[in-house]
Structure formats: C-alpha cells, structure tokens
Design a protein that fits this description.
This protein is 30% helix and 29% strand. By secondary structure, the protein is an alpha+beta fold. A hairpin with a 4-residue loop joins strand 7 and strand 8. Helix 4 crosses helix 5. The longest helix is centred in the first third of the chain and has 14 residues.
Length: 273
C-alpha cells in the first residue's frame, strides 16, 4: 500500500502544504492534531511493523495512532511526497536526565528557505507542537510553552529542552549520525519490548489541540490549555474506552479495551461484562 497524498491530507484535515517553513509548520501541527500518539500495541506485547504499507494501513485506513517510529515514519513519507528536503535522525531520550539512553527516537532535520528546522510529529507528552529552528540558545514560544536547543559539549549533542516552573527540562538529545532502516528496526524492538523501556508497561497517549494538548499516562488524564494543566484519574475501564475514543479519536473494540484494562490492573467493570 503506497503513500497516498489525498488520503493522508484527508486524515489530518488540511490541503497540500507548500515545501516552505510555513508549510512545514502546517504539516507538523496538523498531523499532531489529527493522529494521536499511542502505544497500545507495545503495551499488549505487539512490536509495531515499520513497513510503509503497515503504517498506512494502521494510521490511515484503520485510523489508529502510533508511537514515534510509526508517526514519524508516516510524517517522513509526507515530507517526501510534498517536496521537502530532510534528514532522519535518531535521538536519545532524556526526560529530565543529564544524559540520554540508546538512540531510540526518530525525528527529522528539514531544510527550508529560512534555514534548517527540527521537525517531530511523534514525541508524545511534552513535545513541541511546531518545528523548532535549529539554533542553539534561541527560546521559541508556542501554545503557552517555551522550548530551546542547548549545545551539550560533553556528549556533542543538541538537546531539546522545555521550560518548566522548575527550570529547563531536557526532552532528548541528538547529533547528525546517519540513520538506516536497520537502525530503526533495532530501535523499534528495543522500544517495544526492552524491560527498561516504558512502552511495554505503561499506557501513554497524547494528542495536540489548538493551544494545548490532552495526554494520558495509565489512568491519569491531563488536559493542558495555554500552559495550564488539569489532571484527573480515570476510574473505570468503560470511562477509559470513552476517553480513548472521544479525546484521542481511536476506536479499539471491547476485547482490546479489556486487555488494556487488565494491563492497567483495573478491576473488571460491570459495564464491560
């Protein structure tokens, strides 16, 4: 199943963008709003297939979400189809730590008429909703949040950081090491099955909205708007299923919902019986 521009644009709700920085912003923002980050497959013991046909079948035809290799796999197909010049990179996730783990997050450096930009449609949770200009030290504000790139001379990486009330929080670091498909396959196995990866053990979902985002971590639902967030606990599997459908746009079916509920140690709910 090859990439189809019309089907993709219909899925994310925009017309074809030009291969400019303005078009890149539109493209990343639309995919983040139209297709949710979710790790249901790894949580249930399934390693996602990274072949183009499988990604299109899952994210476009079945209207599911996915995690970084799937989401940015699709995003990379779109960048190619719409005439962008880009380089894939594999980043080391830090999530507040002073150094990153293995190269296990796919994103892109995109060349535009106004320089190089870091584009990423697959980092769940506290990621940036629009591309970042590849300029160390420049603070870049969007949707009530502020990001920057910091040069880390110790590890020879640029580090993506988000400003929080407690200071700058490191998301991930990257360099320009070349990336091949076998690197993605290996990283995909690590992310989906390694005992030190969060994806086989926690339900993680995220979807951007105009001015904010909605995120799910296990049974904690967080809605953020203009930099302010509210978190509540999901009480039942039935409520979880409704949130997955209504907030993240994903229909999963009762059997899969019950499997997720079992992984999250919900007690069996009469509404699911």
């Amino acid at each position: 199943m090859p990439f189809n521009k019309e089907q993709y644009l219909s899925r994310i709700g925009i017309s074809q963008p030009p291969a400019t920085v303005e078009g890149l912003v539109r493209l990343q923002s639309a995919q983040l709003q139209g297709i949710a980050f979710e790790n249901i497959d790894p949580l249930l013991g399934v390693t996602p297939c990274l072949e183009t046909a499988a990604i299109i079948q899952k994210l476009i035809s079945k209207q599911r979400g996915g995690y970084c290799f799937e989401l940015n796999g699709l995003f990379g197909q779109a960048l190619s189809a719409f005439g962008f010049h880009y380089t894939p990179i594999l980043a080391r996730v830090r999530m507040g730590q002073p150094e990153g783990g293995p190269r296990a997050h796919l994103c892109f450096l995109v060349e535009t008429e106004s320089g190089v930009w870091l584009a990423d449609a697959g980092f769940g949770g506290p990621g940036f909703s629009m591309p970042l200009r590849l300029e160390a030290g420049l603070e870049q504000a969007m949707d009530g949040e502020t990001f920057r790139l910091r040069q880390d001379s110790l590890f020879d990486e640029l580090v993506v950081e988000k400003y929080t009330p407690d200071g700058w929080f490191a998301l991930y670091g990257f360099d320009r090491a070349s990336v091949r498909y076998c690197d993605l396959e290996a990283a995909n196995v690590v992310c989906s099955s390694w005992n030190q990866s969060p994806f086989p053990f926690h339900l993680m979902m995220n979807r951007c909205m105009p001015g904010g985002r909605v995120s799910l971590f296990d049974t904690n639902l967080t809605e953020m708007q203009s930099g302010k967030s509210v978190t509540r606990i999901i009480e039942t599997p039935a409520e979880l299923g409704k949130i997955i459908r209504d907030n993240f746009g994903i229909e999963i079916g009762q059997a899969k919902l019950e499997a997720i509920a079992a992984r999250l140690n919900f007690e069996r709910d009469e509404e699911l019986a």
